[in-house]
Amino acid sequence: MVKAIRFNETGGPEVLKLQDVEVGDPGPGEARVRHSYIALNFIDIYFRTGRYPLPLPNGLGSDAVGVVEAVGPGVTDIRVGERVGYLIGPQGAYAQARVMPAEVLIPLPEGIADRTAATLMMKGMTAQYLFRQVRPLQRGETILYHAAAGGVGLIACQWARAMGVTMIGTVSTDEKAALARANGCTHTIVSSREDIAERVREITEGKGVPVVYDSIGKDTLEASLACLQPRGTLVSNGTSSGPVVIDTRQLAAKSIWLTRPAMVHYIQPRAHMLEMASELFGHVLAGRITSEPQQAFALADAAEAHRALEGRKTTGSTVLVP
After folding, report:
1. I need a surface site. Which of 96, 113, 199, 214 has the fewest CB within 10 A?
2. In the predicted model, is pLDDT for residue 59 greater than 90?
3. 3.60.21.10, 1.20.120.450, 3.90.1300.10, 3.40.50.720: which CATH number matches 123-263?
4. Burial class (CB in 10 A: 0-12, 13-18, 19+), 265
5. How many degrees, rounded to 5, is the angle at CA 319 between CA 314 and CA 322?
6. What residues does CATH 3.90.180.10 cover in the chain?
7. Residue 150 CB contacts under 8 Å (≥ 6 apart), including other chains
8. Would you place residue 242 in the very low, low, confident or very high pLDDT band (cuts 50, 70, 90)?
């Protein structure tokens, strides 16, 4: 038996309960992983509240890192004792240990500690697919990125700097603005007191930007559209403030391209996933990207971690410690 967070109904953080669960041995094509760190992501809130439906009762959590304790029949490229991480597969990472499909496990290189790797699985790979696949960036471009001091945002700041991209980042406070700039964000906009579209026009001398990465959604949609150049691209990669509803006439005004990407469609097959991870890990090992948890909560305090994330009381990445 291991400890795991489960929920029997959707709702607020209080629905998250620490329970004893049976793990068992891995079957064909599976491996059992003992977690060292578990990542907290905003998508976890979507599952908990029912915005993204799950059959109930269920576990929660998309990504974690740890050590392989056992492998099932047919598993050849993952070894017992190997350090691994993952970001896709069934929900249930909020646990001390679990059985996972071996094909989703990513070996961790020497030189990247578990604590660091826990901030890279979903968040670092998200920066990779946004900047290198969804709308590939080119050196010299200027972009707008919302929530620049968040878990993905701080990695995105550094990745943009490494690529020679000028990043304009929105944040909610002056403290978060300083953090984003320290991580490579060229310009910051404090959305609680500054007009986003007006500031982007100032920074770009009226040209606007060719691409906006918007994980906030409803509250920033109008500003995102206003900041784009004609034939620009709006990458709607999250809806933390609520779902996006668009009248296509809003796009026609500038012939804007709109995409709502999902990681699962950019990370498969396994060979491609490992290539993505290799590129990310290469930046980390070379010192171009650094990433450490800014907050850590005990697994038993998952509800409190959710309250902090929803209340915008966190910066960067947050992890749960089993």
Report:
1. 113
2. yes
3. 3.40.50.720
4. exposed
5. 145
6. 2-119+292-321
7. 215, 315, 316
8. confident
Residue with tokens 């699962």: 264
Burial class (CB in 10 A: 0-12, 13-18, 19+), 71: buried
The structure's pTM equals: 0.94
Q: 58 forms bridges with which residues in the sheet?
A: 7
Instruction: Provide the token pair at 207.
Output: 């040209």
Number of H helices, E strands in the chain: 10, 16
Phi/psi of residue 187, nearest 5 degrees: -130, 145
> For 131-149, what is the mean pLDDT?
98
**Where exactly does CATH 3.40.50.720 map onto the chain?**
123-263
pLDDT band at 241 (very low <50, low <70, confident <90, very high): confident
Pairing, β 106-107 against β 187-190: unpaired
Q: Which amino acid is at 196?
A: I
Where residue 40 falls among pLDDT bands split at 50, 70, 90?
very high
Hey, what CATH class is 2-119+292-321 in? Answer: alpha beta
Q: How far is residue 263's CA from residue 88's CA, in Å, rounded to a whole number? A: 9
Helices 122-129 and 151-163 meet at what angle, rounded to 10?
A: 40
Helix (H) or strand (E) holding 190: strand 187-190
Res. 207: pLDDT tops 90: yes
pLDDT digits (tens, 9 = 90+) for 209-225: 999 999 999 999 999 99
